[in-house]
Amino acid sequence: MQLPTPRGPLTALLSERLRRPPHTVGPPHAVGPPPPATGTSALADEDLQLALFTCYELHYEGFDGVDEGWEWEPSLLAVRQVLERRFEDALSRAVPRPSFRPHVPMRQALAELVAAADGPCLAAYLARRADLDQFREFVAHRSIYHLKEADPHTWAIPRLRGGPKAALVEIQADEYGGGHLARMHSELFRTTMRHLRLDDSYGAYLDRVPAVTLAVSNVMSLFGLHRRHLGALLGHLAAFEMTSSFPNEQYGRGLRRLGGDDMARRFYDEHVQADAVHEQIAAHDMCGGFASRFPSRAGEVLYGAACALTLDRLFAEHVMGRWRRGASSLLEVDVMAGTR
Fold first, then answer.
1. If we measure between CA atoms, which residue out of 293, 182, 285 comes closest to residue 237?
2. How far is residue 54's CA from residue 195's CA, in Å, rounded to a whole number?
3. With the C-alpha atoms ordered 143, 54, 323, 245, is the resulting torsion angle positive or negative?
4. Between the N and C ends of the chain, which has fewer C-beta atoms within 10 Å?
């Protein structure tokens, strides 16, 4: 993946520095003062979200031409910490912390949280009304996460013990196709992209997706890379699995309506079945087991789930809002004209 095109001073700074051998970026205040409270939320800040994504990507596959020594460069980590604090502050303002009731099983508490979530039904629109260009846009958005599906949540495995660890490994083993390349969910998504005549290379649409799409991915990396957010990472995964089966059935239906064959729809069909099982494992065995072992951290689990639900709502609002106005939900109207 190439370094993304800068969207402001933060990403311009990172782009210029990362093209050189590792060196001191500068003091944390090099990223500049935080935006005023009345300004754009960090969740919608194009420059900040892309800067965070760039920093996080150094812990995944990295970028072509960027020295791997940057991954643990202390001055860059200090800058990332400043950006993370802004992100976390914006999350705390956008996502009220659910209160955990000790007498309520974690599985029930998560189910209630999911049931109370609202927002536009993007899945229903894609199933019944979206045209092919809109569906392709949706897939381009989702490629930012799905081409590395499961990786952020895998950070939790070495941080768990006992039943919760076994439950997470069971879920992740399915995500990685049980060790078979062709069955890995990221590879199934590549197949969907190819059938839709999209570029299936990792990060191909990074320059095209807006801040809210990056935030959906960044929150997973934020939770995954910090052990203090372990409970939130588990809750995020649980919410992800508990809200997956029905939407994926709708996505598959929409793709079928638009002419997609069995191979094009396999990614969505696979999730209808797999995630119906995963949601039970995630809510009961993984999150329930974690909350039983660490009762004081049960609230973190619900907060992570609430963050997942809120960002998914904000993403749907962005996409649906743009489409209602007859505009592209991506940063450039003609992005789908061909692969780059």
1. 285
2. 28
3. positive
4. C
Which domain, by its residues, includes 206? 106-337
Q: Which residues of 43-77 are buried (b: 16+ CB within 10 A; e: fewer)?
A: bbbbbbbbbbbbbbbbeeeebeebbeebbebebbb
Least Cα distance to 323 among 117, 44, 129 occurs for: 129
At residue 120, the pLDDT reads 84
Sorting pLDDT into bands at 50, 70 and 90, what band is 38? very low
Q: What is the CATH number of the domain that holds 165?
A: 1.20.910.10
* pLDDT tens digits, 280-318: 999 999 999 999 999 999 999 999 999 999 999 999 999
148 and 88 housed in the same domain: no
How confident is the model over 240-284, as pLDDT tens digits? Answer: 999 988 999 999 999 999 999 999 999 999 988 776 788 999 999
DSSP string, 230-251: HHHHHHHHHHHHHTTHHHHHHH
Q: Which of 294, 144, 129, 287 is nearest to 211 (CA)?
A: 144
Residue 31 scores a pLDDT above 70: no
For residue 28, pLDDT over 70 is answered with no
* Residue 3 located in a structural domain: no
pLDDT on residue 26: 76
